[in-house]
Amino acid sequence: AGAIRFENVRFRYEAGREILKGISFEVPPGKSVAIVGPSGAGKSTLSRLLFRFYDLESGRITIDGQDIARVTQSSLRAAIGIVPQDTVLFNDTLEYNIRYGRMEASEAELRQAAERAQIGRFIELLPEGFATRVGERGLKLSGGEKQRVAIARTLLKGPSILVLDEATSALDTHTEQEIQSALDEAARERTTLTIAHRLSTIVAADEILVLKAGEIVERGSHAGLLEAGGL
Ligand code: ADP
Ligand code: ADP
């Protein structure tokens, strides 16, 4: 489940210029598609449209064949989990932050989510002794550590679609590489839309679309695009 389809999507903010100029692509269930492009290309706009923040000028977006214009925003939010660029954590325990919005989650669910998010693996990357500190308040986390919490929090929701919206853009290259395996694991066998401005972060995508000035100007595999020297 979780097939995403954009069909000739056109969009402009208010009466401004056209931001998306007839975008078509699909993410088959369980597959992973990445959208790469320079700042201002329309990537964030595209992800906001998936959450139905705005109405389309023309075209259609469907999830599992259903036009999202006919779906409530709350059910869209239940179906789609997003890992944003800047994760805001509460000044509380790590466990609270992972459970946030899911305080009714049982220990078993939390453990499952941890496995799905490979918390075991990402905790290993944290400072020595961190694994025993999930219940401790006021821990100072680095950017990469925060993103690992964000991944776990999102997966606990059990979404069929995962949106990684510049999830590693705020991190330095080293930290980005550190959490890449957690992201790849999260994306595995889950319909995933990755948004990024660098090709380097999206090796695992089944297909990559290059968005420039509201148009898909290239599509292909990571290796193919590197060869073409696109980005
Ligand atoms: P990207 O995510 O690729 O950097 P965006 O989708 O943020 O691109 O922006 C695409 C274009 O839409 C830019 O020219 C930007 O200035 C414009 N834009 C983004 N958000 C708004 C908004 N709320 N109102 C008007 N124009 C916007
Ligand atoms: P629910 O409580 O319905 O399960 P969430 O509260 O987990 O859903 O919703 C997903 C989270 O992602 C929310 O915090 C929401 O504000 C945030 N979000 C939704 N759409 C976007 C978006 N396009 N960009 C950034 N954050 C978003």
UniProtKB/TrEMBL annotation:
Family statement: Belongs to the ABC transporter superfamily.
Location in or out of the cell: Cell membrane
Parent-protein start and end of this portion: 360 to 590 of 626
Identification of the protein by name: ABC transporter ATP-binding protein/permease
Domain ABC transporter residue range list: 4-231
